[in-house]
Amino acid sequence: MTKFSANLGFLWTELSLPDAIRAARSAGFDAVECHWPYDTPTDDINAALAETGLSMLGLNARRGDTSAGENGLSALPDRITQARSFIDEAIQYASLTNTACVHVMAGFVSGSQAHKTFIENLQYACDQAASHNITILIEPLNSYDAPGYFLSTSEQAESIITEVDRTNIKLMFDCYHIQLMEGDLSNRLTRLLPIIGHIQFASVPDRGSPEHGEVCYRHIFDVLSKLGYKSALGAEYKPAGKTDQTLGWMSTLK
Ligand SMILES: O=C(O)[C@@H](O)C(=O)CO
Ligand SMILES: [Mg+2]
């Protein structure tokens, strides 16, 4: 039976994070994950997790000045100090909430200096995270939604992971982004499984609930089940309306 994690960056966004955790439990999710939880005290998160019995699978380091369009700082050569302070903050928050993974975002930049900066910041993040048993994730984003984002394909992520050369760095394989950029999801999931730390999904191309669109998630989840993948899959889609009214897929895709 497939397990699902509710991505609270997109689902139940009208609720506070603790109440969204409770809503995810009531809806039958097996775990939760979020984007940027920093306005919520860790005690409130922990109370909701304890009450529901759910665990938090992942959170993101801050992205920088989002009003100026920033989307991560970790590959920006002139922002290393701030990028590392966001990494420290994310690891601290994850450690206090027993969160398994921290997603470190690269940002809008390109070139060899950016590549070097991203590698070194990721090595820093992995070394800080190791003693807390936290895994660092990197996620390729598609170039329709995030044009100019430094990391855009699973192939680039694979070579970065090799170069970072730490045991606690993995790929966040978001089927939505990877279908838009590269396709061939079944073969790619199979080949990349050893370096995958978390999987997310949404319909393609509209990033809605997963029962429609060009990807047959029934097939993808069967592939993962045959591969022995047991971790909860992250439902990271933008609900059309109230989240509770978009969950019909949960019973058919279980
Ligand atoms: O796919 C996404 O957008 C997310 O997983 C994320 O972490 C923020 O960009
Ligand atoms: Mg994602």
From TrEMBL:
Keywords assigned by UniProt, alphabetized:
Isomerase, Pyruvate
Q: Which domain of life is it from?
A: Bacteria
Gene3D superfamilies given for it? Answer: Divalent-metal-dependent TIM barrel enzymes (3.20.20.150)
User: Boundaries of each Xylose isomerase-like TIM barrel domain copy?
Assistant: 21-251
Q: What is the lineage of its organism?
A: Bacteria, Pseudomonadati, Pseudomonadota, Gammaproteobacteria, Chromatiales
Family classification: Belongs to the hyi family.
Question: Does the keyword field hold Cell membrane?
Answer: no
One of the GO biological process terms: glyoxylate metabolic process
In short, the EC number is 5.3.1.22
Q: What is this enzyme's class at the first EC digit?
A: isomerase
Question: What is one Pfam family matched by this protein?
Answer: AP_endonuc_2
Q: Does the keyword DNA damage apply?
A: no
The name under which this protein is listed is Hydroxypyruvate isomerase YgbM
InterPro entries assigned to the protein according to its UniProt record, in alphabetical order: HyI-like, Sugar_Epim/Isomerase, Xyl_isomerase-like_sf, Xyl_isomerase-like_TIM-brl
Care to name a GO molecular-function term for this sequence? hydroxypyruvate isomerase activity
- Active site annotated at which positions? 139, 236
